[in-house]
Amino acid sequence: MRERAAVILAAGEGRRMGADLPKVCCEVLFKPLICHIIDHLLGTGLPADRLCVVVGPKPYCEPVETLLPEGCHTATQAERMGTGHALMQCRDFLVQNRSADILVMYGDAPFVDADTISAAYGAHVAAGNAVTVLTAKVENPDRYGRIVHTESGVTIVEAADATADQLEINEINAGTYWFSAEFLLENLERLTTDNKLGQYYLTDMLGFCDGQQYKAGAYRAWSAHVALGANTRRELAKLNEIARTLRVEYLLNMGVDIPFASQVVVGQDVTVAPGARLLPGTILKGHTQIGAGAIIGPNSVITDSVIGQNTEINQSQITGSVVGADCHIGPFAQLRPGCKVADSVKIGNFMELKNTTVGPNSALSHLSYLGDLDIGRGVNVGCGVVSVNYDGKNKHRSTLGDYAFIGCNTNIISPVTVGEGAYVAAGTNLTEDVPADALAIGRARQQNKPGRAKGRFKRKT
Predict the structure, then answer these.
(1) At 120, which helix (H) or strand (E)?
(2) Which of 48, 83, 151, 255 is the most exposed place for a label (fewest CB within 10 A)?
(3) What local confidence, expressed as pLDDT, does residue 4 receive?
(4) Homologous superfamily of 4-227 in CATH?
(5) Cα–Cα distances in Å, from 199 out to 78, 81, 83, 86, 207?
């Protein structure tokens, strides 16, 4: 394997997006555009220290830098004078990798995947090219540069400079190139601004190939999607819909049941086991994992969480949590980060859990907030139970032992421990530990005052 390195051009602004962030920070399937590109590159086996990202000037570029892997290089394009000018800012990186082949690609092209990158590189090496451009055939070439095949190789003509005949060509430049670093270092400074837009075109590099010492070639991608980027919210929405459709079609082919496919969104890093069912309104984000036989939805959002086999999540939200097998959650429940739920647990309607562990076969049925708790197996939590876990300065944890029974409207004022098999009566303000098998009652005794309510309220007829 020859040495390889890569440059991502990511200095574009987000003005036409209406964003106050660089364009490459805008998201497709809940992941920034540039993160798609980086993941594809790392997926080819390219180490992070062989990657350079061209960013805009500080402080505008800082959101991009926070997304880059450790070891990644950056170069700053202070003035935006074209793609060729952006690559000129990487000269030091190119010198460091002068014996390598250099991949150059745009930071807003999420469909240039690892397989396409590797296939284009194979064609580049096999042909002995100094530059190989990734191309695609499209129905509407529009603003894209046209690929012109000649006896000595290929050239690219920008749409603004193309003749009428050249505008009829439907094979376009997809914006991704493999270069010989030696060729780049010898010819990059030859670029000029002698064009209608007065910019340094990276595409002009193909014109420096003489067909003998340096050859230019093309690799046509399997899909026109590789050429798609986004400069506007409308174009970004198109990328999202294409990515959503491709992801759902992949899952359907893998045996996932999605009866209403147009109403489900699944992120690129989500895994769903065959036999799971995704109902309308389901949104799966981050590094979520869904087990076989699970039923997700309708109208559920799960982020960076693991859901076990045969578990049902009904109209609920789960973030940064692990849920075991054969559980039933919802409707209208929320599991915030840090929750670990064992098998065969019921978490009912209008329940909120945060940083809480729940043992197997426990029932948390409705209308409670449980935060910073360790709940054992077979525990029953009644309606309206609240863990009072914050004293204004610090968070405190409490423990509910195996088979404990927590009555309705109990306030668990942390830190306390409820022993195994203990029973806490309804309406208790729990401020002390409860021994195993004990009954805890912490409420004022009821007093009735005869006649004291008479005339207090007007009675409607």
Answers:
(1) helix 114-127
(2) 151
(3) 96
(4) Spore Coat Polysaccharide Biosynthesis Protein SpsA; Chain A (3.90.550.10)
(5) 14, 5, 8, 11, 16
With a CB cutoff of 8 Å and minimum separation 6, the contacts of 233 are 17, 18
pLDDT digits (tens, 9 = 90+) for 173-203: 888 999 999 999 999 999 998 887 888 989 8
Could you tell me whether strands 289-290 and 301-303 are parallel, antiparallel, or unpaired per DSSP bridges? unpaired
* Spans of all domains in the chain: 4-227, 256-440
Question: Does the active-site annotation cover 40?
Answer: no
Look at residues 448, 447, 414 and name the one whose alpha carbon lies nearest to residue 430. 414
The count of other CB atoms within 10 Å of the CB of residue 27 is 15
Residue 209: count other Cβ atoms within 10 Å of its Cβ: 21
pTM, rounded to two decimals: 0.89
CA distances from 347 to 276, 293, 317, 371 (A): 20, 18, 12, 14
Mean pLDDT of the residues in the chain: 93
> How far apart are alpha carbons 391 and 284 in whole angstroms?
35
Query: Superfamily for 256-440?
Result: Hexapeptide repeat proteins (2.160.10.10)
Q: Give the model confidence (pLDDT) of 157-175 as tens digits.
A: 888 888 888 898 989 988 8
Residue 293 neighbours by CB under 8 Å, 6+ apart: 273, 275, 276, 309, 310
Rounded to whole angstroms, what are the CA distances from 325 to 97, 142, 197, 308, 352?
50, 51, 60, 4, 20
Q: pLDDT (tens digit, 9 = 90+) per residue, 355-407?
A: 999 999 999 999 999 999 999 999 999 999 999 999 889 999 999 999 999 99
**DSSP-derived secondary structure letter, 257:** B
